[in-house]
Every structure is written in structure tokens, then in C-alpha cells.
Amino acid sequence: MHLRSLTVQAIGPFAGRHTVDFDALGQSGLFLLEGPTGSGKSTLIDAIVFALYGKVASSEASEERLRSAYAADDVESVVDLVFEVPAGVYRVRRTPAYQRAKRRGSGTTTANATVKAWRLPAGVELDPSTLDTLGVPLGNRLDEIGTEIQKAVGLDRTQFVQTIVLPQGEFAHFLRAKPEERRGLLQEIFGTEVYDRLAQRLAEMRREGDRACVTARAELASASSQLVGAARLTSEDAAEVRAAIDAAVLRSEGLVAGVQTVVAARTDGLLRLAETARAAATTAEEARRHARALLDQVTATDALLTRRSALRTERAALDAAADTNAEAVLRLTAARAAQAVRPLLVGLERAETALDGARKALRAALDAAPEDIAVPPAGTALRAHVQATGRVAVEEAAALARLVDVEAGLEARRRTVRDARHAIDDLVAAITADDVWLGARPAARTTLLTELEAARTRAARRADHEAALASASELVAAHRELVATETSLAAAVEARAAAATVATAALDRERDLRAARIAGLAGEIAAGLDDGDPCPVCGSAVHPAKAVLDADHVSAERVDRAEADRARAEAGLREAAERCSGLTERVDALRSRVGQVTADDAGQRTAVARGALDEARAAEAAVARLAPALDGFDAQTHDRETERSATVARLTGDRSVLEVTVLDLDASEAGVVAGRGEHPTVAARHAELLGRSAAAAEVLEALAEEEAAQDEWQRRRDELTQGLADHGFDSAGAARSATVDAEVLAELDRIVTAYASALDRVAVGLAEPAVAELAEDLAVDLDGTRSAETLARTRAEEAAGEARVATERAAAATAAADEVLAAAVALAGAVEAAGPVARLADLTGGGGGDNARSLSLATFVLVRRFEDVVAAANERLLLMSDGRYELVRSDEKEDVRARNTGLAMRVVDHVTGQPRDPRTLSGGETFYVSLCLALGMADVVTAEAGGIDLGTLFVDEGFGSLDPHTLDTVLAELGRLRAGGRVVGVVSHVEALKQSIADRIEIRPTAAGPSTLMVRAG
User: Fold this and answer.
1) 777, HSE (Cβ side, Cα atoms, 13 Å)
2) For residue 261, is it within any domain?
3) Distance, CA of 71 to chain centre
4) 597, 616, 646: which is the final residue of a domain?
5) Does residue 510 sit within a domain?
6) What is the spatial distance between Cα 99 and Cα 68, in angstroms, rounded to a whole number?
7) Which of 210, 250, 489, 555 shows the smallest number of beta carbons within 10 Å?
8) What is the CA radius of gyration of the chain?
9) pTM score of the predicted model
10) Domain limits at 87?
11) 799: number of CA atoms within 13 Å, CB side?
């Protein structure tokens, strides 16, 4: 995959819009990403990873860091990336989720993350002015774009970060990690969790199989106990059955057949016993039915004989009472006739009484009525006179009824008029008070609105004050850091000067010692010559004047020690120089950041900004208080205006109602005066008329009742005369003499009816064929027959009980035997199913006899991947270390507490021939060994992902720990990557790399805080 261009806006420390042209940087194949610490180098890498996967490079960091703290609220945070893969050219544009100010009101709201992607035409020129018009859209949903991008790249985010962005610090940790930690890192990179899950699932299946076997054995034991109980075996037989079943379980093979043999031996005998008992019960039941039939026959005959004797006795008693019954029949007939006439007698007596009462009531009504009503004029009938007088009184009273109600309500209506006039006066006063209150409201509202607008104006500048405070605070912090860094720089300069003095002295000493050694070298050579030995200088075997060895001659060991001292002094000088260089860059960056602003000015700016911010916050609180207060003020005004309008409308209506009420009251008073006439009130006149009407009505009602009573008496007398003749009575006295009480009448009727019923029942009973056909001398033995039936029934019940017990025992034993066989089948199946699973679980979990190295399946897979990584890393490590170092995988446990083997690692030092712990490497050695390991990991991961072409790589910090020779070797290896068609980006601020790599991305913080970006290529 080749990166072609990257555009960021309002991302991290970059407040503006910046574009990185990777096509231009890729012309040389190697570029440098450099800038001070914290300036934004890692932000560019995070932006690339975010554009592709929606997350930043570090798994522990949040995407919230992408939003620039320096960006204005109306500036959108955007990452726009164009990359090329064998499948084509793609463009993806993402925005992170972040908090922005609300467009209306105060506070913030969440701007949601968005994504868009396009597939661009092959060979497209990346012209920013036309880029938005090109390409085929791939969608704008986060999930579908994530799937499309991962499919195009061929790597997930973890693989991408481990192959495209080589994090030196993480691989140094991987190099020095313990096997258990290394296992976790490898598992994360290669995604081998599936093998762990497989082993865990097999282990769980083994446990499930073991539990199933234990459960099946328990169920077999329980079923065996149920068989012993159902068959009601003795303790010896029960022990024998359990032992036989346990023996079959231990044999395992033939388990079901063995158990079946045991249970069949117990159930067959029980089935035979049950069959014999059922046959005996059937025979006993036949004998019982025969005895019962004979008993029923004898019992019926004995009952017929007893009934015949009772009927004959009852018939003799009825014949003796025949005369008494005849007399009762005569009395009953006369009493029933008198009973029919009695209501007529009573009715006539009541009619006579009613007639007498009606006549008395008429006389009383006439006495109570006024004389002009009770005494009619001569020649006028009483009824007609009373009716005419009453009708006149009713008509006059009806005419006055309305005026009575009007007269009664006059005082209340006068009071209502007075109250209405008082209410109208109150409404007028309320309207006047409302006018005064509303008149003062506009001025008060203007004051409140002016205060609110002023608070809003001050609150609106909160963001500006916060930005100013942040900027001023950063300047104060920068000044503090600048003072500390300048102090550290001065100390570092002094240390560098001291190191330079030490290095110069060491160099001079080494030079002097070498010169002294060379000067005394002849004496050293001469001291080792014997007569006859050839001179190593001239070759002569004769030595007439050998040089003399000085007493203070410098040996080779002293020169070597001086050389080592000089090397250490130079290394110390380099370290001091590098520290001075780094501190100088930091001082320059901090001075550039603070500019011309002094520390006092920065402090004053901070205080001013903080005061302004406090004022803005107070204004926000005032807005929060005044806005509801203004709304409440307006609501009160509107409510009072509405109340006044309602009061005015009510006043108008009440005045109209009062005028109508007064006119109606005057008319009513005039009608009352006319209606009372000579009486004091209308009610008095009306009451008199109602009295005359009532008196006339009472007289008419008494006349009608007297006439009705006379008619009823005449009708009753005619009915009695006819009734006496119909029932054979000569007079009313004869009927009264024949009358008896209801109880006597009922008793006579009962006696006569009972005698007739008994006579009929006895005759019918004796005539029945079963009774009439009985022989006169017939006799039966009921007690003997009953005893025989009881004995047969007892024997049948005992035989049935024995058969039922035997049958139930056999059925229960058979059912229990079936449960035992089912449990045996289940146990055999569980044992058969658990065996292969247990063997696989042992093998994949690192146990069992077939796994000699005790490696789990996941560890075995990781060992193979680890060997591939080590092999790929060694191809570069041998070159970078000049053939000195080589990585090897080890099966030894680095820790006695480690659970797995196979992921240990050693560094073979070919100079000493001994393997070393990676943790014993120096800083520079650790860097380039880790780099080789990271590059090897990248090669293996891409091969695992299908041989993906990694066109662009980023190598993180760590170059500062290398000596010049090793740095050249590392750069040469990176050059090999470049020669393979890759573009390598080196992330560093080492000065030597700035001198070696021309193409670069320079990132610099500004005095105001945000960083700027410049691409130098070509």
C-alpha cells in the first residue's frame, strides 16, 4: 500500500489546514518526519490510522485527542487521505466526534463522527481543486466504509500499526519481555485467540463429558435402588444385584448386556407369580358372584312374604273403620258448602259498615264547609251547586298563583339589584387599579431588558477569554520551562566542556603513550632477541649493538588501556553533546514560542484573562437568571392585561343586566298591588281561594263515596241470596251453623282422603302377581344364605388383593428394570462420547502422553509464527550487527513459574560464541535488534495477510542511541527497503539524520501555540 496524500484540518496541534504530498516525498524513497517533542509528529501517524480505521494508532489513546484545542468553533476537524493499493486508488475523508458550541443558546453539543470514501480513477493527478469532483462514492456509513477500507488494505488496525508504523518502543518491550508477555503480544498481532478458544472449548467439553459420566453413574445407581425397592428384595438379594451391576460397569465393554442379564433374572420370576395369582383371583370371583346371586333371590322372596302379611293385616283394620269414615264424609260435604257461602256473608257485612261510614263522612264535610257552599239555593241540587262554587274558586286561585311567587321573591330581587350596583362599583375600581399598574410596566421592562442584553454581550465573549487565558497560561508555562531548560542547558554546557577536557586529556595521553611506545620499540624488540635469531627489522642474525630497553618503557597493555579510556571519554563527550543539542533545540523552540513577551507580561495577561473570564462566567449566570425573569415579567403583564380586558367586558355585561333587572322589578311590583285586592297580600287572598276550593272538593268526594257505598251494599245482598240457593241453604243462619274452622275442615279432608288411599293401596298390593302367586306355606333361610355369600366375598377379596400386589410388584420391577437398562445405555454412551474429547482436550491443553513438550495448541501455533519472525529478523540483524548478533528461539523456561515453553528468546553473540539474555543489550543494540525484529514481524504479518505490498513504512524514534557506524548500517538497511520499492519515513529529531536525509516533513510550534507543517522534497 502506498500513501499518496494526507490533509488535516483542526487536528491535534494543527489548527489550520495542512497537506502532506507523499508522492513528492516518495521520489527519493526516504524522508524524515522531524520536530520538537510534542509538536505533532505522532499526530500525523494517528491521522493516517484514524482515516483508515476510525481509531488512532495507540490502543490506549482516545479519538477525542484528535480535535484541535486551537480550532475555532465553526471550523470542522477533518482528515482526508488518498492511498493506492493493487486494487486501485482510494480516498477516505473522516471527521472525529467532538464537542462544539451550540449554534443557538449557550453550552455545547456533540458533533458526531462522519466518514465518506471514493474510489478514484487509476493514474489520477491529485489536484485539490478538482479532487472533490472525481471518483465513485463507496458510501457514508461508518460500518460499511470500515469494511471496504479493510478489504482494500488487506490488514486490520492491529496488523497495520505493527507493519506500516513500526513502533520501536513496543518491539524493545517485545524483545525483553518474558515468554508469557511475549505470548500475549504475538497472540494480539497474529490473532491466534481462536486456538485458545478451541482448547478452552475442548476442556469445557471434557468437563461436560466427565459430569455426564458421573451423572449417568449416579442415575444408574439410583435406578438400581428403585429396582431393589420395586421388586421388594431382601438385603442379601439387593446386595447381589448391586454387586452384579457394579461389576458390569467396571468391565465397561458389554455394560448394557451385563446389566440386562442381571435385571431379567429378577423380573421373569415376578411376572410368573403375578400370572398365577391372577388365575386364582378369577376363580374366587366366579364363586363370589354365584353366592351373591343366590342371596339376592332369597332376600327378594323373604321381602314378598313379609309384605303380603302386612297388607292382609292393614285390610282387616280398614274394614273395621268403615262406619266412622262414612260419617266424616257427610260432615266434610256440609262444611265445604258453608265454606263456599262464607265470603258472601262477610262481603255483605262489610258493605253495610262502609255505607254507614260514608253517610257520616258526608255530614261532617257539609258541617265543615262554608255556609254558601253547604246550603244550595232553593231549587238547586247540592252536587251541582258545590261543583260550580269550587270551580270558580279554583280558577281565581290559579290566576293568582304566579303573583304569589312574584310577591315572595320581591325582597330578594331588590337585594340583588343593590348587590349588582355595588359589584359594578367594585369593577370600576379594579379597572382603575389595573390602569395604574400597567402604566408602570414598560419602563420596568426596558430596565430589565437592558440589563439582560448587557449580560449576554459579556457572556458571549467567554470563549475568547478562555482562549486568551489558555494562551497566556501556556506562555507562563513556557517561560517557566524556558528558565528550567536554560538552567539545564548551562549545566549541560559545563558538563560538555568538562567532558571535552577529559576527552582531550585522554586523547593526548593515548598519543603520548603511543609515541613513547614507538620510541622504545627497538629496545623492546632487542630484548626479545637471542644470538642467532634473525632481526625482525633487518633480518641479520648478528646483533653487535642491541638497543637498550628503558626502565619506563610503555607496554602494549598501557596503550590499549589508554585507547579504552579515550573511547569512553569520547562516548561521554558525544552524550554530553547530544544532550546540549537537544536542550538547545528545546530552548530555541521555547524562545520562539514566547517571542517578545516577557514573563511579567505573560503573568499580567493571565491575570487579566482570568478576571475577564470570571466576569464572563458571572454574566452567564446573570443571563441564566435574567432571561427567565424577563419571561416571567412579560407573562405577568400579559396576565394582568388579560384580567383587565375580562373585567371591562364583565362591567359592560353587568350594567346591561342591571337595567333589565330594574325594569322587570318595577313591572312585578305593579302586578302584585293589582292582584291582592282588598287583602293585605296576594298570598292571603290566594290562601282563602284555595280553602274554598278544598272544602268544595271534600263535599264532592263525600257525596261520591256515599253513592258508591250504597251501590256496593245492594250488589252484595243480591250475591248472598243467589249463593244460599245454589248451595242448598234455606237461610244465612243455616249456612253459619254448618261453617267450621279451617283446621277442622283440613282434618276431615285428611281423614277421608287417607282412608280411600289406604283402601286402594292394599287392594293393589294384594293383587300384584308376585304377591298373589306366593304359596301359602312358603318359607326361606335368609341368614344361612347371607353367611355363605359373606364367606365367598371374603375369599374373593383376599385372592384379588394378592393378585393386585403381585401384578403391581411385577409391573414396578419391570418399569424399574427399564430405567436401569436406560441408565446403562446412557452411561455407555456418555463414556464412549467422553473418551475422544478427553484425549483431544489433553493434547490441545499441553497435557497427555502424546504431547512430549507440553505445548498447548495456541502456543504451538505461536512458536511456528515466532520462528518465522526470528528468521525474518535475522536476515537484517546479521547485516546491521556486522555478523555479531543472531536471534534464536529457545525451549527453556526463563522463569520457573512460567506455564509454557517455546517462546523464550536468546541473542547469540558470535564474538563470544555464547547466547545472551536480550535484556543485557545496550541501548543502541536494543534499538537495532528491535528494529530488525519489527521489520521481520512486518514481513511475516504481510505474508500472513496474503503477501500485501507495504509501499510506505514509518520507523519510530530510537536513532539517537546509535553510534555513527551503527547508524550508517541501519540507514543502509533502510536503504535496502527503499531499493525494494518502499517509501520509508523516519520519525526522529537526531541531528545526524537531518544531515543525512534531505526530504522531510518539518513540524514547528508557533508562539501562539498551534503547530505548522512544511514539506521539503526534491
Assistant:
1) 0
2) no
3) 38
4) 597
5) yes
6) 11
7) 250
8) 65
9) 0.41
10) 2-168
11) 20
